């Protein structure tokens, strides 16, 4: 079942990436690990102020890295602050730690999914501000934010998973 979902997801992402021939902007980020292209078609609003791109892809051979949802837990004890911004900062830091295990950074992420407990506009503002601090170049991954009533562990306020890419 996972294989079917993965293949369908990959196929859909491919169709989306290749069907967009007019771009609001299209940037190419090249570093020593991957080549990620961020695409925002002219027919869609500019998502940059909201810290995401409509689509991302890569042009090189390699493999995907799937990062499980990272909470805002601090340290090996996984201490969860009651402050939403603190948890956002640590969820992004934990995401960077998981990426570093593959010698990757945030610019190697193609897609993120964010789960926020009791989402509201203030939490969206905080998330966006922290994203801009981490992605200083404003070349954001494709992104989906999902409001949820709760997460796996009591007092968890945010969870962020990612799909990154390693160049062969």
UniProtKB/TrEMBL annotation:
<protein>
    <submittedName>
        <fullName>Enamine deaminase RidA (YjgF/YER057c/UK114 family)</fullName>
    </submittedName>
</protein>
<dbReference type="InterPro" id="IPR006175">
    <property type="entry name" value="YjgF/YER057c/UK114"/>
</dbReference>
<dbReference type="Pfam" id="PF01042">
    <property type="entry name" value="Ribonuc_L-PSP"/>
</dbReference>
<comment type="similarity">
    <text>Belongs to the RutC family.</text>
</comment>
<dbReference type="InterPro" id="IPR035959">
    <property type="entry name" value="RutC-like_sf"/>
</dbReference>
